[in-house]
Amino acid sequence: QVQLVESGGGSVQAGGSLRLSCAASGVMFSSLFMGWFRQAPGKEREGVAAISRGGYDTYYGDFVKGRFTISQDIAKNTVYLQMNNLKPDDTAMYYCAAGSGGGVWGLPEKYKYWGQGTQVTVSS
Q1: Dihedral sign for Cα atoms in the order 102, 97, 16, 87
Q2: SS3 labels along the chain
Q3: Mean pLDDT, to the nearest integer, of 67-93?
Q4: Which of the two residues, 8 and 106, has the higher pLDDT score?
Q5: At residue 103, does pLDDT exceed 80?
Q6: Exposure letters 21-50 (e unless 16+ CB within 10 A, then b)
Q7: Chain center to CA of 71
């Protein structure tokens, strides 16, 4: 059974940083296409970043604009999202997702497995 467990969320002031982690179990991590999504109250879930199998390619939402970095540690079965220069608009529940890849990375339906989410709150 595939499990994704996020951690690292919290409350920070604007301009601060957080690093989210997503630990995967029950699956060969190197076979996964991993993504981070976020959803704010009343808004649709949107793609934040994704990383291809083996970490060769990374993808980011336009709103990231160089502030976030996705990475992975295959030995630890973990994917990370380093978030710098956070803004109040970044406030949302952040979800880790995994799938086989292919197609548009930012579409939630492309991912089969999801974590429970971790809350990020940025105050001005």
Answers
A1: positive
A2: CCEEEEECCEEEECCCCEEEEEEEECCCHHHCEEEEEEECCCCCCEEEEEECHHHCCEEECCCCCCCEEEEEEHHHCEEEEEECCCCHHHCEEEEEEEECCCCCCCCHHHCCEECCCEEEEEEC
A3: 96
A4: 8
A5: no
A6: bbbbeebebeebbbbbbbeeeeeebebbbb
A7: 10
